[in-house]
Amino acid sequence: MTIWELDFYSRPVVDEENKKRWEVLICETPTEIDRSPDALFRFARYCPAKTVNSLWLGEAITAAIEEAGVTPKKIRFFRRQMNNMIVKACEDIGIPAAPSRRTHALTRWLEERNRDFYPNQEGYNEALVNVASVQYPPLNAVPLPDAVRGDKSDKWAFVTLEVGAFDDYSEWEVGFGEVLPLKAMGLDEATKIPGLVIFSPRALPLAGWMSGLEMAYLKLETNPKAIIRLETGVSDSWILVNVTDPETLTEAKNFETAKSKAGNLHFLAVQSSPESESFAGFWLLQEEEAV
């Protein structure tokens, strides 16, 4: 499935009338463990100041589709203030638009352009540089929907997998999920990637529900009570696990420490039982550093 990431916003460059130049950036989301970033589709086009609207953006997306030779199944974007324009442009050409914090490839590209490309453009103004990724304050975490909320038969555990364990990921049996280009991140094969596994008789409905979200990352919250939050979309937050005793809280803190050591990489897995050899769901996640 082809997924794209899009940003449509002003850049730190002004035109001959001293107005900020707008630009659309579109890149492909890497959804394979061994996908090289150099192989990803990228598209960039400046927008005239007088035509910053959904019509121009839709035409730019159409041009990108023609250039790529493929139509994406959905387009992710992270700037909430551009929601209406991006959603309208995508709807007009029949592509779902998804507000998301899972725009890692786009974030890296914007960082590269802020560092290497825009400073070499005529009209560059360093004071206009925008951060590559916009961090919105997360909402208060809410309980999972009743249809997928666990009961006393559900269990969960913190685990770790070495980077090398993902060498045969293509052979894993996974119902729902999405991964990141782990092999292109330059991590040592022995680096431990922490994760949380949920064991539930309702594993498939839970994983199916999660597949409809823009999965961002897991986060330990200790105040006012200890929980593991599942962050989705651009600011949505769910109570995934209640941490109820000191021993488990220590494990949760160790999970956060291991995340940090692994470049904030971690994973969430859903299985029907500890004995299962397949995953109802598996997501490789990465928390972006706050900016």
TrEMBL record:
Residues 3-113 form the RNA-binding protein Tab2-like N-terminal domain. InterPro entries: Tab2-like, Tab2-like_C, Tab2-like_N. Residues 133-286 form the RNA-binding protein Tab2/Atab2 C-terminal domain. It holds the Pfam family Tab2-like_C. It comes from the Bacteria. GO terms for molecular function: RNA binding. PANTHER family: PROTEIN TAB2 HOMOLOG, CHLOROPLASTIC, PTHR34556. This is Tab2/Atab2 family RNA-binding protein. It comes from Pannus brasiliensis CCIBt3594.
